[in-house]
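FAQ: What does a multi-protein file look like?

Like this. Sequence, then tokens, then the next protein.
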Amino acid sequence: MKALEQLRETMRRDRVFDFMAGSHLVHPGEIDTRHGPILYVENVNVSFDGFKALNDLTLYIDDGELRCIIGPNGAGKTTMMDVITGKTRPDSGTVFFGQTMDLTRMTEYEIASSGIGRKFQKPTIFPEHTVFENLELAMHMDKGVWSSLQFRLSGEQKDRIEEVMQTINLLAQCHTAAGLLSHGQKQWLEIGMLLTQSPRLLLVDEPVAGMTHQEIEHTAELLTGLAGKHSVVVVEHDMDFIRSIAKKVTVLHEGHVLAEGDMEAIQNDPRVIEVYLGE
């Protein structure tokens, strides 16, 4: 652990992204998860006008893990995701993607390009375009909307889009305008738009809000199916949904981790019952 802390200090000081660990060279942009976690959030503090949104927050997400984050309103869940994606800069603390990428020194675009995707609660899609076109646009988002529409897809890229449509259960809606989809289908489409960019870490905010029971069941299957190939962090208030997918749950309260463990342990934790489950 001391050697790891020294390594991180070297990177913070010199911004060195190439280093030799044993016989393995980690190149710039490569996500090094040999120690297990893909995300390190350590001693992070964020204040807004005197209000401490994050209070010495420390959190680790393992590579390929599906983690559920719960907590009352104002617990710091959104601020945590804002810090991870570069929207908010912490007052202090460190946030690393793998061993080598210091997210606090990267722009939002650099973070997204490095392999972190975020789905907001309200779907952000192109309603006038088809499901296929939305996924195509997402694949070439950095080129701009209209130039992307004129971009000729390779066979491999078309196969990738078809694979994503199968994953999100929208293959039959391939040529349907996104604006005509149900609320749940729009949520799946936005997840698919992130998947076309092959993220290693997905941050998903309240994915089942407003969904039907059937849509909630499919969303549970979708997210659990993504785990392993991707690391998935789900922020949600629907406790039945959390129970259906969670292997490990983190409870935030007043900007820090109140409790962490499997669902049974969380449900029986007196602190969690007092501040959240007992509401």
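And here is the next protein:
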Amino acid sequence: MKRVITYGTFDLLHYGHINLLRRAKELGDYLVVAISTDEFNRNEKHKETYFSYEQRKQLLEAIRYVDLVIPEENWQQKRSDMHEYHIDTFVMGDDWKGKFDFLKEEGVEVVYLPRTPEISSSKMKADLYDAASVGESILNHDNINTDEEAKSNF
């Protein structure tokens, strides 16, 4: 059985993440996804997530390409994870190209996959921030009339 691993925060899950996970799974039989804990994101990556670790874990566990979700608690654990989970292939987006080549010393193949160019969590956050600064929508579930007869009077 060929085992693959990838790492990430996976906050604001989107189709670019799904593309990465699908392509990573195509490289083997069993996909391990290590997601950054809230503490690791806050203390080492200096970013806050919208969803908590447990919420992000639950989302990833629901994806058919993912076989196991584990916590990423620090940068250094990657070396030991390769052995603990019997990893054959380490996968990351190509925005990290060259940063994890040292894992080849652990006997694993290192693959950098192209990102889905038009989407990222950072772009989504920026777009949402821009939309919020323009003003909130006044439309919500409370003021939508779903009565077909009432709509036909317009």
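Q: Is there any per-entry metadata?
A: Some entries carry free-text notes. For the entry above: The two ends are 63 Å apart (CA to CA).
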